[in-house]
Amino acid sequence: MTTQTYSICVGSTNPVKIRAAKEAFELMFPTVSLDCDGINALSGVSDQPMTEAETRLGAQNRIRYCLQADSQSKSDFYVAMEGGVDLFEEGPATFAYVAILDKSGRLLTGRTANLPLPQPFYQRLCANEELGSLMDDAFKTSNIKQKGGAIGLLTNNVATRQSIYTQALVLALAPVLHPEHYTN
């Protein structure tokens, strides 16, 4: 019996993002074999997106970059994640947008929940610091963005960068599982 294989191109070489994509697809397609690789995809936005709109655009731009880089259209899915920050009515928060493009050209976009940020951290971000570097400084860690991220540090690893990316990707994949309910 031949097992179906999905080829997934992740718009990042960050191991956290690659593992999150692989985990989400394993959860949603448990009988499918996965070939999941990352490429260094440009976001076309600032290193630290500071609005929801910029963050969403960054994820979608990474998808477009993956599609263009895959000149032979070998991938079944293109996946990207972009973390960002914004100031909401409740205060500053970090979150991420996820984007998935399937072979048919359907773009699926999702978003994680907000993680509240301390006001002093937000002020440093407004002064052009990047969240990963700021967190490494505040918590005396190294390269936290390729580990649990700010989410892991601020939740004592109850949630992690990977876990929230995985959850957002799972939710964004619902239309792939039930296309009959998501017709335009």
TrEMBL record:
Signal peptide start-end: none
Enzyme Commission no: 3.6.1.73
Keyword Ion transport: no
Cofactor binding mode and count: Binds 1 divalent metal cation per subunit; can use either Mg(2+) or Mn(2+).
Catalyzed reactions per annotation: XTP + H2O = XDP + phosphate + H(+); ITP + H2O = IDP + phosphate + H(+)
Alphabetized UniProt keyword annotations: Hydrolase, Magnesium, Manganese, Metal-binding, Nucleotide metabolism, Nucleotide-binding
Sites where the protein binds substrate: S12, T13, N14, P15, V16, K17
Cofactor(s) needed for function: Mg(2+); Mn(2+)
SUPFAM superfamilies in alphabetical order: ITPase-like
UniProt GO MF annotations: hydrolase activity
Enzyme class: hydrolase
Domain Non-canonical purine NTP phosphatase/PRRC1 per the UniProt entry, residue ranges: 11-177
NCBIfam families: PRK05074.1
Subunit annotation: Homodimer.
Family: Belongs to the YjjX NTPase family.
Function, in words: Phosphatase that hydrolyzes non-canonical purine nucleotides such as XTP and ITP to their respective diphosphate derivatives. Probably excludes non-canonical purines from DNA/RNA precursor pool, thus preventing their incorporation into DNA/RNA and avoiding chromosomal lesions.
Official protein name in the record: Inosine/xanthosine triphosphatase
Gene name, Swiss-Prot/TrEMBL: yjjX
